[in-house]
Amino acid sequence: VWYVTERCVFRLVAHEGKPSLELCEIAPGIDLQRDVLAHMDFMPLIGRHLRLMEPALLGEAPIGLRERLSETPLEARFELDPGHRLLFINFEGLRVQHEADISAIEQHLDELLRPLGHRVAAVVNYDRFELAPGLLDAWSAMVARLSERHYSRVTRYGSGGFLKARLEGLKQETGGSAGPFRRPAAAESSPDRR
What we know:
The chain has five helices and eleven strands, in the order E-E-E-H-E-H-E-E-E-H-E-E-H-E-H-E. The protein has helices at residues 32-36, 65-69, 99-113, 136-150, 161-173, and strands at residues 2-4, 8-15, 18-26, 45-52, 78-81, 86-90, 95-96, 120-125, 130-131, 151-157, 181-182. Strands 5-6-8-10-11 form a five-stranded mixed sheet. Strand 3, helix 1 (32-36) and strand 4 (45-52) form a beta-alpha-beta unit. Helix 3 (99-113) packs parallel to helix 4 and helix 4 packs across helix 5 (161-173). The longest helix has 15 residues, at 99-113.
């Protein structure tokens, strides 16, 4: 459950076994203490990745709120198996609209993987992944940095030909650490993705 106001965005989370509100975004120009917390009867959790709300949320044009709210949260897209040195990344259906989205992904992965002290093999699902125009270079640079710092190898799955070609080129630029990109076999694809 999300609560979107003109000043900030909260989401309902489980904290210490109880439902709690977490402040995850704040509107541009809003002072957290003065304009939000001072008006609340309780102290909400403050998200680790507190960020500015998209200005589009405060405008008049439709923003596709239903689609946005039904998306998988960023932290739920990563599954780490430290014992097997494996990282599963689910970018299925992810829409990267802004450079801030790329930064949030890189920051989350750095925080997840840095404490391990060793590299992991990454398996990435890029099915129905969408990258906004103009962000390909920023995305590719982020992938290269993560590959250099954290990955022993990367296997990518998906059906997007253009991104596949770009990331395969990245594999050659990084000496092979970016890994292969595989199209799912028909048996692995659901009928709506063939």
